[in-house]
Amino acid sequence: xxxxxxxxxxxxxxxxxxxxxxxxxxxxxxxxxxxxxxxxxxxxxxxxxxxxxxxxxxxxxxxxxxxxxxxxxxxxxxxxxxxxxxxxxxxxxxxxxxxxxxxxxxxxxxxxxxxxxxxxxxxxxxxxxxxxxxxxxxxxxxxxxxxxxxxxxxxxxxxxxxxxxxxxxxxxxxxxxxxxxxxxxxxxxxxxxxxxxxxxxxxxxxxxxxxxxxxxxxxxxxxxxxxxxxxxxxxxxxxxxxxxxxxxxxxxxxxxxxxxxxxxxxxxxxxxxxxxxxxxxxxxxxxxxxxxxxxxxxxxxxxxxxxxxxxxxxxxxxxxxxxxxxxxxxxxxxxxxxxxxxxxxxxxxxxxxxxxxxxxxxxxxxxxxxxxxxxxxxxxxxxxxxxxxxxxxxxxxxxxxxxxxxxxxxxxxxxxxxxxxxxxxxxxxxxxxxxxxxxxxxxxxxxxxxxxxxxxxxxxxxxxxxxxxxxxxxxxxxxxxxxxxxxxxxxxxxxxxxxxxxxxxxxxxxxxxxxxxxxxxxxxxxxxxxxxxxxxxxxxxxxxxxxxxxxxxxxxxxxxxxxxxx
Length: 566
Fold this sequence. Notes:
Nucleotidyltransferase, domain 5; Endonuclease III, domain 1
């Protein structure tokens, strides 16, 4: 059957008798048993299918390039820390690099230092295909995601290394035994001063500074990798004309691009900075067990990250998994032995008017400076905590603590609640309270719950100290200030806010905001001075309103809890 738009073909195949040239053509076509059919519309797909079925296959030869081979190792001991790297080019040319790290590092940190340094060298050489081998099983399996990186000290290295690896077309990471990594191992030992005299050490190596969290590269939207969740949204926002999936179009309505970064518009109108997978890992580790980490559960971690202006789609899932998988939290988590009892509210209508005070101790083991006790005070309204370590507890030390850490910082208090301890109800303390007009309230052995607020704070502080000291229990006095800072910047269920915000009407700037450059950190220099002062005045005006709302939340929360137990 023949399909044609030309009338001459129709004429040849339809007429029984033809003359001249057309007759000759018709006679030549009779051997093929052709019939004529009128041409209908043919879709372009039919032509494409025909060409695809009848195209002759062509052999394609791919040229495989030899990869760069990389061996790295780190060495750390009492004399110092050093890193060694052994690189073999695709042409088989070996190159050795040796660096001494200026600051002290752990063994795992030196391994990561070596890896990060050599990856930066290879990127400078424009290498695209690399094979990486190291004798640190921990580092290698963290990079291949067989192990989970939960150490705050290693998190910055992990994120930096993963970001550098994403710049290569092909990058393989594998474990090599010490015997196969001998060259890099010897170089690292030389750099650390383990195998060479100190006088010759300066001639052999160069000094390198330790990686800082501020050295982390925050990925801009013009350098997103293929697997980044932000990439399809950014591409649609930059070019909304092309064909895009309907789900992505719907999601993109809640996002905007400012400068060179992607932000999510929150329900209350605030902008949340969108983080990549690696940046999100840094944020979670900093909030949970970092400098201001309070080792909290997933929901409170998410609350803190939102208040710091950070977002990614799986934030709740990632926070829960990180908190559940942290070893120290599992080891020191509290076990409830007593059933819940009715809560009797002690509500103060304004900050720093009513305080509760108690002693933790005797603590075993004592600190390296022979501290055996901790004196703790908490404000009933804001939940602000003050605590210091003590070698001995006397009435004089209690009076000095009240003066220096409560009165001189927050003003004269109205009431002070204590237990029946002799250091709190002695004549000197009673005379001091009377002379300053402080109402001294004491709980009884029949009703110890009257001082329950500070007892709950004691429990939280002890748990945080256990999580922070790790394997150095005698250093607990050094982490006490850090623990207090973490406590003050953690949201409290009773007020729905952090103690720091109720005291100053601002959220404190935490390390994660500086590392990842939150919106308020990036834009603070762009605000004119006049607008800045007007905004500060508005915040002070709103402070009273926020405190009243916190008081309402406190009353409702304690009232609903009392009703649930009736």
